[in-house]
Amino acid sequence: MFPEYYSKNSKQNFIRLNDSLIANNETVKVINEIPRFVNDDNYASAFGEQWKLYRLTQLDSYTKSTITYDRMKRCMGKKIFESLRNKLVLEAGCGAGRFTEILLNQGAYVSSFDLSNAVDANVINFPINERHRVFQADINDLPFQDEQYDIVLSMGVIQHTPNPEETISNLFKQVKPGGWLVLDHYTYRLSHYTKTTELFRFFLKRMEPHKGLIATAQITNFFFPFHKAFRKFYLLQSILSRISPVHSYYFAYPQLSHEDQYKWALLDTHDSLTDWYKHLRFKGQILKLLRSIGGKEIYCEYSSHGIDARCKK
Ligand SMILES: C[S@@+](CC[C@H](N)C(=O)[O-])C[C@H]1O[C@@H](n2cnc3c(N)ncnc32)[C@H](O)[C@@H]1O
Hints:
Blueprint: E1 6-7, E2 12-13, E3 15-17, E4 20-23, E5 26-31, E6 34-36, H1 45-53, H2 60-63, H3 67-76, H4 78-81, E7 88-92, H5 98-105, E8 109-114, H6 118-125, E9 132-136, E10 149-154, H7 164-173, E11 175-185, H8 190-194, H9 197-204, H10 209-229, H11 234-243, H12 258-274, H13 283-292, E12 296-303, E13 306-312
Parallel strand pairs: 7-8, 7-10, 8-9, 10-11
Antiparallel strand pairs: 1-2, 3-4, 4-5, 5-6, 11-13, 12-13
Bound molecules: S-adenosylmethionine (SAM).
């Protein structure tokens, strides 16, 4: 069902031999049933540690909410979302799998991958089976021939890659004619310039991943009680967030329990203080790019997460 792994160097499919994939002189290790086309030592390693530590935190099945379901449905659009059954989906930058869960529940065949070893967390949450395959690879060097997937989905990822335009073009190459590319992207917000996040981030993103996790936990433990105390006072919360780099979801997701609020604060504060790349784009820039790569039936709008976009090939 899933497309074969393909070596662009030797222009042939990889074949499985014991714990490796082989194509001509190329060997790719398969560890824990996950082919590793890249190693862990790259700009995304802090994400890997993050997703292993907070493996369950943002899964809808864990929070007993529909936060991820709603976000994916909004970005994908009702029509594509409801047509997911038996579709071949490439999920780029899967992390621990909050979107993997929704895709699998909708009955898709899901090929999930990440640059970091978050893939190990993903397979613990959603074991490999005939409907779910996981591999570790770079969006910009994928082991497939072009046009292999009905839907390519990348949520919360593209802004963290070195060059979002190149990333989007490479993802679009994987879409079959008639298929869809679905993505979101950070955009410019005043808070980006008025918050202390960038100041903290300058130091934290340079730390070793495990130290970055400890430092963000300390920062969160210091500020979170204030966010909790001010949760019903919008003005106080706004003033606090000029000083505190902690992510608080008391306003956005009041349905989360206090315990989950705290875990989301730990996770997303780490995410926003240790990401190596954080690109911002205007809606017009994404729209122009999707047109230039040949996207049709383009949807591109600002949303609570930045920009939601999709286009057909
Ligand atoms: C903020 S996380 C989002 C993870 C998941 N999509 C979610 O929303 O929970 C961004 C993910 O993108 C991955 N990533 C960054 N650059 C990548 C690349 N070039 N190829 C594949 N994954 C990448 C990171 O390792 C990280 O797991």
